[in-house]
């Protein structure tokens, strides 16, 4: 192993530099991961552009969707993990003591640290996993590194669907058919949803939405609500906002079923506002639920689904650019024109 490595360091919005630094030294209990898969999502884009600052400590190395090989360890590895295994990395390290943790919400821990935020993420050739996060390593040896890295957004989607009680719903509407929207479609069908409706303005994505299991794929034009009403005369049980825009919900407020759930799943700009009529919520017993990242158990559930082929994700992986073009990769991810864009840190 070389004594140095390269990583992309974000010093300020739009100021990312490729730096050569020493390979991290391990403290007792730490594990060293050689990164072999690093994907980008909208959160990385918002951090890079300065639209997300909460929980972010600059300078920072982005990339919370990562997988790699166990390269070294200072002490015993977690149960089920062996040297040179391929692992995906649950990105959050909660404190275990705050109100959120004690109430069963460690994913929104008030004192959490996270890979790609405060801890170096996947845009680095090696990542040190601190002792407190050793159990965040989940072995996944039967798929490619990029399929292993996509466990993170799958786990986030699973968390969102659990909170919105998707299992058992008759009709689910997924607004947006980007990579996460497609994951939501696949998970909803895997959970037995009878009718999944995909609404996506980019008609180039309609075929893959249908191939993902959507029973109906629509564009958000003026008559979309009426078309949904014809498909689901009893109403939509769950709306999943898989794109961070208010218009991912507003057109569908008139087609919600009694007791419907609204999953505010995607991240929004800080000034985004959702407007709902209070009495509509009151009289129809609507539930509005957020979904922030995921829990470790979601990771532990999602990884085997991908590892054994129950959930196909290879077609959701898009362009992979070399580390020197990491900023370009973020711009490509922001464009929405590709699938899950990533960075090959060794190219």
From TrEMBL:
Domain Alcohol dehydrogenase-like N-terminal, first and last residues per copy: 28-132
The protein's required cofactors: Zn(2+)
InterPro entries per the UniProt record, alphabetical: ADH-like_C, ADH-like_N, GroES-like_sf, NAD(P)-bd_dom_sf, Zn_alcohol_dh
Tagged with keyword Transport: no
Molecular functions per Gene Ontology: oxidoreductase activity
Keywords in alphabetical order: Oxidoreductase
Top-level division of the source organism's lineage: Bacteria
Alcohol dehydrogenase-like C-terminal domain sequence ranges: 179-306
PANTHER family membership: L-THREONINE 3-DEHYDROGENASE
Name of the protein described by the UniProt record: Alcohol dehydrogenase catalytic domain-containing protein
Lineage, broadest ranks: Bacteria, Bacillati, Actinomycetota, Actinomycetes, Actinomycetales
């Amino acid at each position: 192993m070389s004594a140095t490595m390269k990583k992309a360091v974000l010093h300020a919005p739009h100021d990312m530099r490729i730096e050569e630094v020493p390979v991290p030294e391990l403290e007792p209990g730490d594990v060293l991961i050689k990164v072999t898969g690093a994907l980008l999502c909208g959160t990385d884009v918002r951090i890079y552009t300065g639209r997300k600052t909460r929980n972010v400590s600059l300078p920072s190395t982005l990339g919370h969707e990562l997988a790699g090989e166990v390269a070294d360890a200072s002490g015993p590895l977690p149960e089920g993990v062996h040297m040179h295994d391929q692992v995906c990395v649950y990105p959050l390290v909660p404190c275990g003591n705050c109100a959120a943790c004690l109430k069963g919400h460690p994913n929104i821990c008030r004192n959490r640290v996270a890979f790609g935020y405060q801890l170096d993420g996947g845009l680095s050739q090696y990542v040190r996993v601190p002792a407190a996060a050793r159990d965040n390593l989940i072995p996944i040896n039967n798929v490619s590194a990029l399929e292993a890295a996509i466990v993170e957004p799958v786990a986030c989607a699973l968390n969102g669907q659990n909170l919105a009680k998707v299992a058992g719903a008759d009709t689910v509407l997924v607004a947006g058919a980007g990579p996460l929207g497609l994951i939501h479609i696949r998970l909803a069908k895997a959970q037995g949803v009878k009718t999944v409706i995909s609404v996506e303005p980019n008609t180039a994505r309609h075929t893959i939405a249908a191939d993902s299991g959507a029973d109906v794929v629509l564009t958000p034009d003026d008559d979309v609500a009426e078309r949904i009403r014809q498909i689901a005369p009893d109403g939509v049980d769950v709306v999943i906002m898989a794109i961070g825009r208010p218009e991912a919900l507003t057109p569908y407020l008139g087609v919600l079923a009694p007791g419907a759930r609204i999953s505010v799943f995607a991240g929004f700009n800080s000034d985004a506002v959702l407007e709902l009529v209070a009495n509509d919520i009151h009289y129809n017993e609507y539930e509005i639920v957020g979904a922030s990242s995921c829990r470790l158990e979601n990771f532990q559930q999602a990884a085997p689904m991908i590892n054994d082929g129950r959930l196909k994700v290879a077609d959701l992986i898009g362009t992979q650019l070399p580390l020197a073009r990491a900023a370009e990769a973020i711009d490509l991810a922001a464009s929405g024109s590709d699938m899950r864009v990533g960075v090959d840190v060794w190219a």
